[in-house]
């Protein structure tokens, strides 16, 4: 199945692993990820000002282009997923934003939120199916106790993202089971990591991440998975007594599918991490 | 041609301040059929009614239009007045110029114009009206109460005391309901079982009351005064006549793995069981899903130890069919599931419990013998946090929009009882508002705060985070202090919202009783008919109608009983003649009407249809006028216009529309 694929900026430098492992896995899962030529940065943060339409335009461009191709738009980064889905929801439900954006971009017929936005995890759950995924796993991660770290952007606002129950999510746990490992439930898996506060006051995210990692380790997790480059950054930056390694979920997926050592992947990995 | 009198009411200034009543009375005189028109300050008063009666006789009126308030308010009044003066009451029509005109408009000129239009429509309808005669139907002098909790028990006792036969159908093996699970009751703190069990015994011993426990209503047909009900008496696998209630079978039963529903799953029970020691009847049932004999064919220990030889593995479900004049729904409530509130970690920690679970943990007959302890390590908790409004007053679709009404009071009760029994315990309550509108209720809550020093914090809890060591970290907000809080607790109690019991929706379907979006059964009028369903002969008692506490439930149970007694006291019932009437010549038996009828009033018969040039036998609709409630759905659904509602005929409705558009 063919999807438009919106990698987002971070996946082109800091978070190359998130991107490259996904691409490596796509082939095994019979998924084609087609990256459009002209995508622009989503902005990274959904603008909360009700009159801030300009900052939503790059997302609208990506959504419109995908609509023309009659594909669904897949993304990997929690933040891109959050921004694209929320802007799409605005285009569907908020007439002022929809009209303004369409007028400015001179879209005819106007874009009205027709494109379906999917996180890669949703593709695994709803298109591939975790049961099918389980069957495709060649190197199950047996014995590894993994804490799913959702953060906030992947889940909230639940009504708009329609991703999973924000208070009791299970998509990552189901994913962890599908790749043969054991999920560890801990209370802070859906709490914020501190996000961009790391720019203003690094002590805050550090304290928050310490709580998250301490709790996960306390309940017996050996490692954490995330789909968010910013969570990854904050979690790795905080120095805690619990030095839990943090992985992108795609890396573990690649390992389970036996494509982690794919030379093409490791080569690109090295390029990305000078 | 009709001779119509029009009577315009001022309703004090309610109508007269916005509608020019004198002018209206003058205008309508020129309407076709109108021979008399007048106005009066209070038409519903004795003098106003006398004016109508006098005009009916003097002017030989054949129809009356009263321009006044909503027909819900005084249609019955004016019909009775007309009947007293010798006019068929169904020739009276109300033009609602108060709720639908004067109350919602400001400008007198346009309001008067609108009042005239409304009057015209009513006059046009009366011009095409025909006198209708009320029918009669018999009354079976026996009532059915569905649900054996305090609501059902009280309703049944009150009906039985008046001398009528009552059957109680209870789904579980014993009557008693939720109240039997409670420890103490607010605001007097008397023991729930002590005040309930005598009532249970009374109900069981009453010669007019028959209990069908471990039974469910399976089918309801018929109509007010003459319902026919199928009751499924589930196989107990124990002969109730032989059983002495000694309890030996329960002791010896080797299968003790089933979650004990009466103890909210906090304990296991045997496969053969009575839900609690004071159960009525004191006859156990075998839960066949967990019974070794039923699952493997082996065991049979209970039969061996039973001295009375009461165990009967061959017993089968029995269907009992009975006739009733009235049915009372008293199906009660349950607590909501907490799956969607996992921020409170109910699924993650055994030490996060619901208030009903706490009731069992504090009850001397409960799983811990009344000793309050954590389920995880059996330690007595030292710091307890209560969270109110879990799932109640919820702004999104996760929970319930309504206030569950009983939680503020029972939380105050729990907090107080814990501080009384374990004075060293720190007790904190998070609340949105504390609502205590009841006799001696606020005093009770204040005692919790002032005498028992329960720490009430206005604010909500965002998360309960279980710690690896088993403690619970409660993250909340203190709104009055505008600060975030982190409280360590070793027990968290959730005052979960209450909702109508499972299965009430299909039951409402069987009873054709109205039900709201929250699955509460709807009363016929929120203020004036609070214990009746809109369906005649169906009455409501207890929480199935809306959240309420025990005193309120008992009051409503009594009120429902009085309504039932009033119905059963009659030998025959008058039936509303405004029912659907098919024109057999136009009916082609397509079933469209029966498909939309919410009351099951339409059936089909092979009938001989005779008209000039036609003589054939074909399938046509037949309306049971005792079942028909006159809703009119069939008249709209009928593709050939064969269905007409008497008193609201299609011609009359069209004439009204024409008059409005004129």
CATH class of the largest domain in chain B equals Alpha Beta
Beta content of chain A: 5-15%
| Backbone shape of chain B | globular
Number of helical segments with 4 or more residues of chain A:
13
Q: Descriptors for this entry?
A:
heterodimer, A: 274 residues, alpha/beta, Glutathione S-transferase Yfyf (Class Pi), Chain A, domain 2, Rossmann fold, 4-stranded parallel beta sheet, 8 strands, globular, disordered C terminus, B: Rossmann fold, FAD/NAD(P)-binding domain, 5 domains, 5-stranded parallel beta sheet, 18 helices
What does the model show?
The complex is a heterodimer of chains A (274) and B (662). Chain A has 274 residues and is α/β, with parallel strands linked by helices. Chain A has two domains: 2-120, Glutathione S-transferase Yfyf (Class Pi), Chain A, domain 2; 128-259, Rossmann fold, CATH 3.40.50. Chain A contains 13 helices and eight strands. In chain A, the strands form two sheets. Chain A has a four-stranded parallel beta sheet with strand order 2-1-3-4, with helices on both faces. Chain A has a four-stranded parallel beta sheet with strand order 6-5-7-8, with helices on both faces. The longest helix of chain A has 16 residues, at 78-93. The two termini of chain A are 34 Å apart. Chain B contains 18 helices and 36 strands. The model of chain B has no long low-confidence stretch (mean pLDDT 95). Chain B is globular, with a radius of gyration of 31 Å. Chain B has 662 residues and is α/β, with parallel strands linked by helices. Chain B has five domains: 4-127, Rossmann fold (3-Layer(aba) Sandwich), CATH 3.40.50; 142-179 and 189-194 and 205-233 and 319-332 and 503-568, 3-Layer(bba) Sandwich (FAD/NAD(P)-binding domain), CATH 3.50.50.60; 248-305, no CATH class; 335-499, FAD/NAD(P)-binding domain; 580-646, Alpha-Beta Plaits. The two termini of chain B are 20 Å apart. Chains A and B meet through loops of A and strand 24 of B.
């Amino acid at each position: 199945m063919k999807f438009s694929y919106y990698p987002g900026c971070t996946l082109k430098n800091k978070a190359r692993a998130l991107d490259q492992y996904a691409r490596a896995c796509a082939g095994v899962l019979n998924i084609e990820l087609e990256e459009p030529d002209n995508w622009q940065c989503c902005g990274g943060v959904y603008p909360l000002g009700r009159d801030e339409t300009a900052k939503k335009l790059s997302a609208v461009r990506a959504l419109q282009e995908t609509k023309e191709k009659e594909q669904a738009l897949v993304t990997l980064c929690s933040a891109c997923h959050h921004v694209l889905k929320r802007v799409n929801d605005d285009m569907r439900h908020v007439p002022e934003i929809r009209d303004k954006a369409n007028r400015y971009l001179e879209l005819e017929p106007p874009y009205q939120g027709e494109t379906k936005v999917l996180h890669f995890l949703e593709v695994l759950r709803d298109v591939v199916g975790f049961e099918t995924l389980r069957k495709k796993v060649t190197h199950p991660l047996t014995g590894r106790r993994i804490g799913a770290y959702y953060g906030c952007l992947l889940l909230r606002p639940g009504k708009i993202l329609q991703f999973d129950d924000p208070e009791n999510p299970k998509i990552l746990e189901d994913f962890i089971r599908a790749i043969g490992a054991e999920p560890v439930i801990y209370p802070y898996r859906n709490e914020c990591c501190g996000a961009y506060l790391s720019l203003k006051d690094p002590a805050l995210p550090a304290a928050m991440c310490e709580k998250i990692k301490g709790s996960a380790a306390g309940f017996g997790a050996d490692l954490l998975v995330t789909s968010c480059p910013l969570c990854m950054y904050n979690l790795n930056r905080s120095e805690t007594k619990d030095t839990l390694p943090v992985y992108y979920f795609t890396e573990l997926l690649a390992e389970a599918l036996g494509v982690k050592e794919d030379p093409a992947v490791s080569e690109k990995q090295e390029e990305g991490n000078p | 041609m009709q001779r119509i009198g029009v009577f315009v009411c001022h309703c004090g200034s309610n109508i007269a301040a916005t509608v020019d009543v004198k002018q209206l009375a003058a205008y309508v005189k020129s309407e076709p059929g109108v021979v008399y028109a007048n106005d009066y300050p209070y038409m519903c008063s004795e003098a106003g009614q006398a004016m109508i009666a006098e005009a009916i006789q003097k002017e030989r009126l054949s129809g009356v239009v009263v321009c006044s308030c909503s027909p819900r308010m005084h249609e019955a009044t004016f019909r009775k007045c007309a009947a007293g003066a010798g006019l068929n009451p169904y020739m009276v029509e109300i033009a609602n110029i108060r709720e639908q005109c004067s109350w919602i408009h400001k400008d007198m000129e346009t309001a008067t114009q609108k009042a005239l239009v409304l009057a015209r429509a009513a006059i046009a309808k009366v011009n095409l009206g025909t006198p209708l005669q009320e029918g009669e139907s018999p009354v079976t002098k026996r009532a059915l109460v569905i649900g054996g909790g305090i609501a059902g028990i009280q309703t049944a006792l009150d009906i039985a005391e008046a001398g009528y036969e009552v059957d109680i159908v209870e789904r579980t093996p014993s009557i008693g309901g939720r109240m039997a699970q409670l420890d103490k009751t607010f605001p007097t703190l008397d023991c729930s079982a002590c005040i309930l069990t005598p009532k249970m015994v009374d109900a069981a011993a009453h010669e007019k009351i028959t209990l069908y426990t471990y039974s469910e209503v399976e089918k309801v047909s018929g109509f007010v005064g003459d319902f026919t009900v199928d009751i499924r008496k589930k196989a107990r696998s124990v002969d109730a006549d032989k059983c002495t209630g000694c309890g030996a079978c329960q002791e010896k039963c080797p299968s003790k793995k089933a979650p004990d529903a009466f103890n909210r799953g906090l304990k296991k029970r045997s496969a053969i069981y009575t839900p609690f020691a004071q159960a009525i009847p004191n006859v156990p049932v075998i839960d066949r899903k967990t019974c070794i004999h039923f699952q493997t064919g082996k065991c049979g220990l209970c039969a061996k130890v039973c001295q009375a030889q009461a165990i009967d593995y061959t017993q089968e479900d029995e269907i009992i069919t009975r006739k009733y004049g009235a049915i009372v729904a008293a199906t009660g409530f349950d607590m909501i599931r907490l799956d969607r509130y996992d921020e409170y970690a109910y699924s993650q920690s055994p030490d996060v419990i619901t208030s009903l679970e706490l009731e069992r943990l504090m009850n001397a007959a409960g799983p811990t013998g009344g000793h309050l302890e954590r389920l995880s390590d059996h330690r007595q908790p030292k710091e307890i946090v209560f969270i109110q409004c879990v799932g109640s007053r919820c702004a999104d679709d996760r929970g319930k929009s309504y206030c569950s009404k009983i939680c503020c009071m029972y939380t105050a009760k729990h907090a107080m009882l814990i501080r009384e029994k374990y004075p060293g315990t720190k007790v904190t309550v998070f609340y949105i508002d504390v609502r205590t509108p009841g006799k001696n209720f606020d005093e009770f809550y204040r005692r919790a705060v002032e005498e028992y020093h329960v720490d009430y914090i206005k604010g909500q809890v965002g998360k309960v985070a279980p710690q690896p060591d088993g403690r619970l970290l409660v993250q909340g907000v203190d709104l009055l202090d505008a600060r975030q809080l982190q409280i360590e607790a070793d027990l968290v109690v959730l005052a979960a919202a209450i909702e109508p019991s499972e299965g009430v929706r299909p039951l409402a379907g069987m009873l054709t009783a109205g039900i709201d979006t929250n699955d509460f059964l709807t009363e016929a009028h929120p203020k004036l008919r609070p214990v009746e369903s809109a369906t005649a002969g169906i009455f409501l008692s207890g929480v199935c109608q809306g959240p309420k506490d025990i005193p309120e439930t008992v009051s409503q149970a009594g009120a429902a009983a009085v309504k039932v007694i009033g119905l059963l006291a009659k030998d025959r019932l008058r039936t509303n003649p405004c029912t659907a009437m098919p024109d057999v010549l136009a009916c082609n038996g397509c079933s469209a009407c029966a498909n939309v009828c919410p009351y099951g009033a339409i059936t089909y018969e092979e009938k001989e249809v005779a008209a000039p040039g036609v003589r054939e036998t074909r399938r046509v609709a037949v309306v049971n006028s005792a079942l028909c409630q006159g809703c009119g759905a069939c008249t709209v659904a009928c593709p050939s216009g064969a269905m007409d509602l008497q008193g609201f005929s299609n011609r009359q409705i069209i004439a009204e529309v024409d008059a409005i558009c004129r």
